[in-house]
Amino acid sequence: MSNVLGIIPARGGSRGVPSKNIRELLDRPVITYTIEAALAAEGIDKVVVTTDDTKIFKICQDYPVTLLDRPQELAGDKARIDDAMRHCCHIMETEHGYKPDIVVLLYANVPVRAEGIIDKTIKHLMNTGADSVQTMTAVGKFHPYWLYNIDGDKATKYVDNKVYQRQDLPRLYMIDGAVGVVRYEALMTSAGSDDPHAFWGTDRRAVIQQPHETVDIDTFRDFLVAEAALREKELPVS
User: Fold this and answer.
1) 62 vs 54, 65, 67, 120, CA distance in Å?
2) For residue 93, what is the enclosing H or E element?
3) What is 99-145 written as a DSSP string?
4) What element of type H or E holds 66?
5) What is the value of pTM for the model shown?
6) pLDDT in tens, 153-207
7) pLDDT in tens, 139-156
8) Is residue 166 part of a domain?
9) Dihedrals φ, ψ of 99, to 5°?
10) CATH number for the domain that contains residue 115
11) Is 159 domain-assigned?
């Protein structure tokens, strides 16, 4: 039986949307959606919220989660998420006597996730023996083949190609931010690497989702999208 630790990083600051993790979304702070999703996941046995913000601390005290004080050097907008995750693991092991085998990264600014996606991603890691698994979605029409470099007003293709129809584009995927699962060893042994993605290990796998299944909030418009998605989930199935 594996020890599976869910980590919810929740900084107080944000450039795009100030205090986005605690802004009200359908009369609830945004972070509560992630906390409840983590607690509902059968595969997670402990949930940690790491934050530098007293208001976030206060909100999280209503839930059965471990609260960790995130050091300022790990809470700036240039701080790396893997450093914050390693800090959580170190504190949990040295102060709480708990060493995880698997770590689940759940961003606090993602109020919309597909039902069961956390457990599905954990199980995929266990079944494949990979170093990590992340949820991803197809790039769609914002494909590198249809992107341009702009010099002044001169446009040149970012990737030289002759693809005209969307269905002829090579299938590419991007991380959607819903769930990231990584083995403890891959996370901890990557400390000090100059590659900010090294902590995902060398054997990286994906669980593919539809674009609408995840909404992460980075802009004020994302709040409207998240609200619409959450209201849609409440509609009766016809």
Assistant:
1) 14, 9, 11, 27
2) helix 81-96
3) --SEEEE--TT--B--TTHHHHHHHHHHHHT-SEEEEEEE-TTS-GG
4) strand 66-69
5) 0.94
6) 999 999 999 999 999 999 999 999 999 999 999 999 999 999 999 999 999 999 9
7) 988 999 999 999 999 999
8) no
9) -115, 115
10) 3.90.550.10
11) no
